[in-house]
Write a structure and sequence with these properties.
6 helices, five-stranded mixed sheet, about 280 residues, single chain
């Protein structure tokens, strides 16, 4: 009888211990659940705040930009002193940077909230690339760089993408190549590889290390060293670019060697062969 009672007490004690442990685990899980919900709520509030603030800033910045550009045009006709023109140019450049930051923040907010829309259509990629290069040629010329475009023979360039978003991606990548290249060239090439249209943007810029390349597509990440300290940017462009490319069923890769240059490769599935 004593043995049976001893075993019963042991089993009872073990049961109590298990119940206590279960209560502790459930309590901890409950705390984690509350913490997760609070973090999620704060994150949603942050996204809403960024979206609201960006929208509110967008209108006054657009107005300022319009008036500054109008002043620059009128200043040319009125033969304003060189010093005055420089001041207006600085204001205009700063306004453009602020405008770009606001647009980047809005894009990040839309992407994270699932509100970023793409209008996918079958398009010919070549004219979009040519148009983008034409628009950015002045920027390259100002730095003494050659901006080149090459089409591999018999290239099929029909892809299912959003034309405006494709242009946004190209402007971002080509713009980065120009910003981080002090001499030489930026070469854009399209070709076919298996069932994909391949767009490559290769520059002779400062390049980057393997460690820097690992973080390249992270939000707010910027390479910081003596060579990049004067290059302006938000650290959002490449993150946004990668999200857009992947939304359009594409992929993006980066190869880079310090002091040699960088090549960004974008691929999109082909629709059909052109005749």
């Amino acid at each position: 009888l004593a043995t049976i009672l001893s075993k019963s007490y042991g089993i009872l004690l073990l049961g109590v211990i298990l119940i206590v442990l279960l209560l502790l685990v459930n309590s901890r899980l409950f705390e984690y659940s509350i913490l997760y919900n609070k973090i999620k709520e704060v994150d949603e509030m942050k996204d809403e705040f960024i979206s609201m603030t960006s929208h509110e800033l967008r209108t006054p910045v657009t107005v300022i930009k319009g008036y500054v550009q109008m002043m620059i045009e009128e200043a040319k006709d009125l033969n304003i002193k060189k010093e005055g023109m420089e001041y207006l140019s600085i204001i205009n450049t700063s306004t453009e940077r602020l405008g770009n930051l606001i647009e980047d923040l809005l894009d990040v907010s839309r992407i994270e909230q699932g509100r970023f829309k793409t209008d996918l259509k079958e398009i010919n990629a070549k004219p979009v690339i040519e148009e983008t290069i034409k628009e950015m040629s002045f920027q390259a010329k100002e730095k003494g760089l050659s901006l080149n475009f090459e089409v591999i023979e018999n290239t099929n360039d029909l892809i299912n993408v959003d034309k405006d978003k494709l242009k946004q991606v190209l402007i971002n990548i080509i713009g980065n190549s120009i910003k981080y290249t002090n001499e030489g060239s930026v070469d854009v090439k399209i070709s076919n590889k298996e069932d994909n249209l391949v767009i490559s943007i290769k520059d002779t810029g400062i390049g980057m290390s393997a460690k820097e390349r690992e973080h390249l597509f992270e939000k707010f990440y910027r390479i910081k060293n003596k060579k990049t300290q004067d290059v302006v940017g938000t650290g959002l462009g490449l993150w946004i670019t990668k999200q857009i490319v992947e939304m359009m069923k594409g992929s993006i890769f980066v190869d880079s060697i310090e002091e040699v240059g960088t090549q960004v490769t974008i691929q999109f599935p082909l629709i059909k062969k052109t005749k």
